Structure formats: structure tokens, C-alpha cells
Amino acid sequence: MRNGDFSEDPSSVNYGIWDPYSTVGPDANGLFSRTAFGTPIPGNPFGAEGCSNAAVESGKPTCNFSTQIPQSRLDPTAMFFMKSFPLPNYNDPLSNCPMGKDGFKICNNFLGGEGSSQNPYNMSLKFDHQASAKSKFFAEWVFAPGKYDNYRLPWTGPSFPAAEVGYGVNLPLWFTNQVAGLGNTYIISPTFINEFRASFSRQSFSTHPDTAGYPDSVTGLSSVTKALAPSRLWLPPYEPEPSIFMGLPAGNGTLQFGTPQWVNGSSMSEAYTFLDNVTKIIGKHTLKTGFVYRLEHSARIINPPLHLGFTGSLTADPTTSLGAPGMAQFALGAVDNSSQLSYSSYPYLRDRYWGFYIQDDYRIPSNFTLNFGVRYDINGYFKTRQGPMSNFCLACPNPQTGLKGKMVYWGDPEFPNGNDMAPANKNSIGPRLNFAWTPFKDRKTVIRGGFDIFYTNAVNSYNKASRPDRSGRYSLTIREVSIRTSARHSPEIALLSR
């Protein structure tokens, strides 16, 4: 089939290979017409139109289907990829696929191994200094770099199936985690203690998006770039090649090769944290109060690659959807109208958090401790470092429509310059009540219970650069443009060279 001969494929033999570029329509009834490769049967009632879908759908023998795509119609770029697929080496005993001419079934006919590894490293330093009988300092640093790698691959070259390999991660991944902190514990009196901490943490990872993590010897990227050059495809930044989806013969699913979707990128998050806790013991009461302030930064570079689909919808009868598989459509260079291009820009974000608390551990008798207190959290929303920012104001009257709802931008009265995306929620008050009871004198049994209210910074967490999936685009996307059509059966455009 890699040379356009689909005589081994039952669907092509029985229902034909339909020419995507013969598609016309829709007509007044919303239907498309298309012609199959082949020759009209002499004397058929449709004459020279015997291989049209209208003739074939009549139920009368009107067309001798051809299972060979004419050599002049084979797309050179598609053939470049087709020739890079490995030859069959295996017959799956559980597969019901028909046998091909070469002694191998036409699907589930290749067996290749893969292997992955993750090698983390951990380094740490810590210093303690007793400045006086009342004051003790410490400083520490933790550095943990590492790499995830797919060291064994089923095959390499332009059709390397990067999205099909790996365990949890498709691409080699370089990651680094580091934490630096210092603190002081000061004993004001035997019943009065102050603790101060300051820390910096950073987490980052990268697939080296310019090459999707793999060397040229694996992906053949340099030859792919050269082969795609005549097509003049626009690729999003940091996406070195398209992601191609091709339907396989005998209804055996879809093969994806090229850059995987939404996993090729770089990400960084860091936080500066300052906190102070004061403890005071008064009789049976242990009072504690304190605060924490955290400044967070995050950044991300990731785009979905250009998505080119070849599902077989354009090499099938446009009415019955019966016909040749996506591989034939790919060989003709006809891209599905579901193919699309998206571009997302992720700015450098900043958000802040403040937290305050006060609590009391009250030992009523010696075997029963009651803990009660309250915490107040202020979770600030994010803003970009460079700007400008935009938002959608639901309550703002729109001068164009007279209705509520309009876009606002930094500098507008409704969105002052430099403001966060939204005001911080200042109603996050969380009371808590807990107890610990030791009912027996031997103190071998402890019963605990309590009620607490906690608040989380869910919106900012949703937008964190460390999120691995595409839903992180929620508010980080400054602009996203998708190019696609809605016609179900007509080709959008031949993006591969002819």
C-alpha cells in the first residue's frame, strides 16, 4: 500500500477509492458528489458517470473500481513519509485482519520494543548556627535535577511515532527542582518563642521544544523540514513539525506521527515565601499566631502542533461513508476538513497570597486537649508582568449592543492599569475546632476529631504553568486562532505538495 496499491484492503476492493479532488457540493439538499477511481461498466445507465457516487448508490453495477491510485496522483510529500515506515515483521495471532500478498496481515503486523527511564539526582546542603543560648539560625539548599528518557524506540525516521511511545511522557524531559531556605528560632523566654522562615523554590521542565526532545537521528527532522518546505505550512513557535493522524486499513484505528499534541514545551514556576510564627504558653493554654506571604511567578511555552488529519472521509463515498482508509487519503495528500491550527501565547504571570491565623491548644484536663482557632486567607489573582491584560466584564454595559458584557483592557475605567485579573477574595475566613482525648490511664488509646474549613487558591492553581494538560489554557491564552471549515465531506485544502 505504500506505493498506492490498495488491492489488499477489502474496503478499497468492495467500495472503491474515491477521489477527494472530484468532490462537488453541497447541492440544494446539502449532499456532495464524488467520483471513484475506476472505469464505468460499458452499457451502464449512467454512462460516463458510472463511477459517480449517485451511480454506485443506485445498486446497479456501474463501475469497475480501481484499487491502484494513479502514480501521477500520489503526493510526493506523502510518499516521503510512507517510505519511512518499517516493513512488516509480525503476524498478530489474535487479529482478524486479512492476509496480505507478502505473507503478513495488513494490520497489527509490526512488533517493536520500547523502553523508558527516569534518572533523578538529589543534592543538599544544610548549615546550623547557634548564635546564642536564645537564638539559632539555619540555612539549607536542595537541588534535584533529572531526566526522563525513552531510550528504546520501535522505529526511527520521519514517521517516528513519538505520541505512541513512553510511559506517562511521550518526549524526553529535562526537569529541575530546587529549594533554598533560611530561618531563625528565637527564645524570648521559656514560654515565649518566635520562629521566622524565608524560602525560595523553583520547579522547571523542558522537552527542548525546538526539536521535541529527540535528536535528528531519531526524528529525521532535518529531512522532514526539507520535504515540507514546498508546502509552505505555517508551524506555531516551538513546534518543529505537524502532528499527522492517518487512518489505518481494515478499520484498525489511527496512527499518529510527528510532534505529539500538547506535550512539547517548557515550564517554570517559582515562589518566594516569608512566614513568622509566635508561640506563647500561659498555664493550660498554648497560644499560636502567625502569618505567611507568598509571591509566585510562572511561565510556560507550549503550543499545539499543526494538526493534519487523514481519516478516510475524503476517499469514501460522501453519502454512505464506505471506501478506502485514511492511508489512501494520505497518499493523495488530501487533508481532512477537521484539520486545524491553534496558536497560544502564555505570558509571565505573577500572583500573591497572604495568610494569617491564631489558635489555642487548651488542655482542659491533662488527657483532653481542645484546639480552636481561625485562619484568614487572601488569595490574590494573577496578572502578567509585561502586560497589557484584557478581561471580560459581565456587569459592564456594552455601548455596541446596549447589553451587559464587554471586553475591558488595562487603562479602561473598569480595569485600571496594573490591576490583577480580578480583585482578591477577602471573605476566606476559616474557623477550626479539634480535640484529642486519651480515655485510659495507660495512654495507649487516643481519640481525635474535629471540624475545619479550608480555602484553596483554585483559580490560580488552574492556571499554573506546571499544569501538564491543555486545560491550562483557560486564562493564560492571550490569543488562539483556529482555521477550519464546517463542510463535512469536502477537502479543506491540499496542504501537502502535489
Query: SSE order, as H and E?
Result: HEHEHEEEEEHHEEEEEHEEEEEEEHH
State the separation between the terminal residues, measured CA to CA: 19 Å
Low-confidence stretches: 465-498
Number of helices, where a helix is a run of at least 4 consecutive DSSP H or I residues: 8
Question: In total, how many beta strands?
Answer: 19
> Beta-sheet strand percentage?
35-45%
What value does the average pLDDT take? Answer: 87
**Assembly type of the shown chains?**
single chain
Question: What shape does the CA trace take?
Answer: elongated
Radius of gyration: 32 Å
Count of domain modules? 2
Q: Which percent range fits the helix content?
A: under 10%
Query: Sheet bearing the most strands, described?
Result: 12 strands, antiparallel
Structural class: mainly beta
Architecture overview:
This protein has 498 residues and is mainly beta. It has two domains: 10-73, no CATH class; 115-476, no CATH class. It is 9% helix and 37% strand. The protein has eight helices and 19 strands. The protein has helices spanning 10-15, 53-56, 76-82, 216-219, 221-228, 326-332, 458-462, 473-476, and strands spanning 38-40, 63-65, 115-120, 123-130, 135-152, 173-189, 192-206, 243-247, 254-258, 265-282, 285-302, 307-310, 349-363, 368-379, 383-384, 390-397, 404-409, 425-437, 447-452. The strands form four sheets. Strands 3, 4, 5, 6, 7, 10, 11, 13, 14, 15, 18 and 19 form a twelve-stranded antiparallel beta sheet that branches. Strands 9-8-12 form a three-stranded mixed beta sheet. A two-stranded antiparallel sheet has the order 1-2. Strand 6 (173-189) and strand 7 form a beta hairpin. The chain is elongated, with a radius of gyration of 32 Å. The protein starts with 9 loop residues before the first helix and ends in a 22-residue tail after the last helix. The relative contact order is 0.13.
